[in-house]
């Protein structure tokens, strides 16, 4: 019974992750980058390829929606673990799509909590999974 509650908790965290991606994309100006003069500016003002750094957040939202849909079909514990590991690896790889934007600068200078939540949620998911593994031994 406790295993089911952990899976439901993971799904709630996934829904929150998708919500954070949506809020970041629609209600913020995007990533900040460090100018040559030592100040921060938004990447959408760039004329180069670094101006589309928000595509990484689109990818994150897509992978977490896909994870949520697949988690409805896979109910076994090993399948859930593999699916979560794959999703978190995709989370890390999609952050590699950011060219000019600064995650740290966006969180600290722009006081962007949505991006902070997006970065913290995979850690929270692994903690839920770790608690799940310890309680079933």
TrEMBL record:
The chain crosses the membrane at residues 7-25, 55-74, 83-107, 113-131. Keywords: Membrane, Transmembrane, Transmembrane helix. It comes from the Bacteria. This is Uncharacterized protein. It comes from Apibacter adventoris. The lineage of its organism: Bacteria, Pseudomonadati, Bacteroidota, Flavobacteriia, Flavobacteriales.
């Amino acid at each position: 019974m406790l295993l089911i509650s952990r899976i439901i908790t993971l799904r709630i965290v996934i829904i929150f992750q998708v919500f954070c991606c949506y809020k970041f994309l629609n209600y913020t100006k995007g990533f900040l980058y460090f100018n040559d003069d030592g100040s921060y500016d938004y990447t959408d003002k760039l004329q180069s390829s670094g101006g589309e750094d928000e595509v990484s957040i689109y990818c994150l939202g897509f992978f977490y929606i896909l994870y949520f849909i697949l988690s409805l079909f896979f109910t076994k514990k090993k399948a859930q673990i593999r699916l979560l590991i794959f999703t978190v690896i995709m989370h890390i790889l999609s952050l590699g799509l950011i060219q000019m934007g600064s995650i740290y600068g966006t969180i600290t200078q722009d006081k962007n909590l949505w991006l902070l939540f997006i970065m913290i949620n995979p850690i929270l998911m692994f903690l839920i999974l770790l608690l799940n593994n310890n309680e079933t031994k």
